[in-house]
Write a structure and sequence with these properties.
Elements (H helix, E strand, L loop, with lengths): L2 E5 L7 E9 L4 E5 L17 E8 L2 E2 L2 E5 L2 E5 L7 E9 L9 E2 L4 E4 L6 E2 L7 E6 L5 E3 L9 E4 L2 H5 L2 E5 L3 E6 L2 E8 L7 H24 L10 E8 L3 E5 L3 E7 H4 L2 H16 L26 H18 L5 H16 L9 H6 L12 H4 L3 H18 L4 H11 L9 H11 L3 H10 L6 H7 L2 E7 L7 E6 L2 E7 L4 H4 L7 E5 L2 E2 L3 H5 L7 E8 L2 E8 L5 E8 L5 H11 L5
Helix pairs in contact: 2-4, 4-5, 5-6, 5-9, 6-9, 10-11, 11-12
Bound molecules: zinc ion (ZN).
């Protein structure tokens, strides 16, 4: 059994010392470091943080032959069974939920970035040992195996283990008898008074949200035997990463203290917690097993993320922690964001899923015109699916529960065709409709589905003429951040990064000063600078466009629609 020892040494040096010990299993042995971590679909080349690799066999240094940027071969002829020691260091200076960070305040490690896979040992148990400063504590979502040690079932479970270490406070609670731990790292700041005062309420709300997730899945208990929440509470930030038995959350301190921010936080908790079923255990076949060394095209990420993003908004409500009006407001904002994304006319939902590695995770200032997020459109299609299924007396929750029973609980990966079959089993016409919604650029009849539950989308036109650009005031000047495809700014020859200098001879300094009073069709002389050269162009305003959409209750909705709405908001079938 390989033993992995992590020594934090002096955390101020940001260097994690790693040793891997095992008996030589075969004469030729390959070592590889993962290039990405599941749940975050980007090749990160973690090897760029690895240094000082050396191997000792018995008491002899062993030559290492590099096969690729993140793979090596050891030639160990005649040494099978001898003790093998693999040593290296990992620089831990990147703070995110999928990278490694070590300093005097804490340590956080995504083990995909840390542990070498030893050829032939992927499915062997791995023992994990950690040495850390004496006043720190290690939070490890693995079964303990003696003092300062833990046991992973195999390399995959080890890689799926996020580690948080520090002088942190933690708390425990249970969900349906399953032990849960919560640990917060509060950035570099001292514990906030707000968090001290609200800690019991927050933990109670997290517990209620977790219980709501179990009810949604029709499960008497969580899918994991024990669960760890790791929260990085920073000045700002938002995100999470799911694991089988844990999740890592990052959230802004100020945002958590507002009513909207707190509700969004519980939605994030629900999202990552729900992933212990959807995507971790109820997993696409393309990720069964996971290839850690190259990008893997997954056509059904819309299901893994879109369905989860839709459901997470309901869970604080079904847990009794938010109101129906707040949910409608949240859904309306998502629908508005979707309808105002021009890229939905360019990229289909399936393509968005398949291109995650090179589009969503590598979005630039032009992305909004050429792509649509599978989280966002996936959630819109989830809403449509839920309302469509309700016309047949079923619901999205029924489909996800059935997929769990058929695939997830047995560890069987699903193909996209399995998803289509599961939806068609509840509503036969989805066999035809759903492939269109995945592949086509057009939208389902959103207005018709929303009318089923007495709701309507209302457009809110902008107050001013449309210029087709977004600018930001920097100390250096007014910089163009976005230029809409086919818009007035594009026609005027503007590009992202241009510095806007003057409009009709007047110096531009504030973002608002660009708007001024324009009437549609009016042209004004714009002076701007690109790559150090000052240029002049004519910018012609267009008619105001829709500025936002809102989801509103239809006052004319009848009793049946209101009853359907009540059922829909509970997530339960009619
Ligand atoms: Zn997610």
């Amino acid at each position: 059994m390989p033993t992995v020892c992590l020594d934090l040494g002096d955390p101020q040096r940001h260097l994690l010392a790693v040793t891997l010990e095992l008996a030589v299993p075969r004469p030729q042995l390959r070592l590889r470091l993962p290039a990405w971590t599941p749940g975050s679909y980007l090749i990160r080349d973690y090897v760029r943080h690895l240094e000082g690799l050396e191997v000792v066999c018995g008491d002899q240094p062993c030559p290492i032959r590099r096969l690729g940027p993140a793979s090596w071969q050891l030639d160990l002829d005649g040494r099978v069974g001898a003790p093998l020691l693999i040593r290296y260091r990992v620089m831990a200076t990147e703070l995110s939920v999928r990278t490694c960070h070590l300093d005097g305040d804490h340590g956080f490690f995504a083990l995909a970035a840390v542990v070498l896979e030893v050829e032939g040992e992927r499915w062997s148990p791995h023992r994990l040992e950690i040495r850390h400063p004496s006043d720190w504590q290690a939070f490890v979502p693995l079964p303990p195996s003696g003092e300062g040690a833990w046991l992973a079932r195999d390399f995959d479970q080890l890689i799926d283990t996020p580690l948080e270490l520090g002088p942190h406070r933690s708390a425990s609670f249970s969900v349906a008898g399953v032990p849960h731990r919560w640990v917060t790292w509060e950035g570099a700041a001292a514990s906030t008074d707000w968090l001290k005062r609200h800690r019991p309420t927050l933990l109670g709300d997290v517990q209620a949200t977790a219980e709501a997730c179990c009810r949604l899945m029709g499960a008497p208990a969580p899918a994991s035997d024990a669960y760890l929440f790791i929260l990085h509470l920073l000045d700002e930030g938002y995100g999470g990463l799911e694991h089988d038995n844990s999740c890592v959350l990052v959230y802004g301190r100020a945002s958590l203290q507002t009513a909207d921010g707190y509700r969004k936080f519980l939605q994030l908790v629900a999202h990552e917690y729900l992933h212990q079923w959807n995507v971790r255990r109820l997993r696409p076949a393309e990720l069964t097993p996971i290839n850690y060394h190259q990008a893997v095209v997954v056509p059904s990420l819309w299901f893994a993320e879109g369905i989860t993003s839709y459901l997470d908004q309901f869970l604080p409500l079904t847990a009794g922690l938010s109101s129906e009006l707040e949910l409608l407001d949240d859904l309306g904002k998502d629908l508005s964001r979707y309808l105002l994304t021009p890229g939905r006319q360019v990229q289909s939902l399936r393509d968005s899923s398949q291109e995650a590695w090179v589009k969503l995770y590598r979005a630039d200032a032009y992305a909004g015109d050429s792509q649509v997020s599978y989280y966002l459109k996936g959630a819109v299609i989830a809403l449509v699916l839920d309302l469509h299924l309700r016309r047949q007396g079923s619901a999205l929750s029924v489909v996800i529960r059935q997929l769990w029973q058929q695939f997830g609980r047995w560890g069987r990966g699903y193909q996209e065709s399995d998803l289509l079959a599961a939806f068609a089993a509840e509503a036969a016409d989805l066999e035809t409709l759903l492939p269109h919604w995945l592949q086509d650029l057009g939208d389902p009849d959103l207005a018709g589905y929303l009318a089923d539950v007495g709701l309507k989308l209302v457009s809110q036109p902008s107050q001013s003429a449309w210029l087709g650009l977004t600018v930001k005031a920097e100390p250096s000047g007014l910089l163009v951040q976005r230029v809409h495809r086919h818009g007035p700014a594009e026609q005027a020859g503007l590009a992202v990064g241009d510095e806007l200098l003057a409009l009709d001879g007047e110096r531009l300094r504030q973002a608002d000063s660009l708007k001024g009073v324009w009437s549609p069709g009016q042209s004004r002389e714009l002076l701007f600078c690109r790559r150090g050269r000052v240029r002049c162009s004519s910018l012609t305003a267009a008619a105001p466009v829709v500025g936002a959409w809102s989801l509103e209750q239809d006052p004319g909705a009848g009793t049946p629609a209101l009853e359907r709405r009540r059922q829909w908001l509970s997530l339960l079938p009619i």
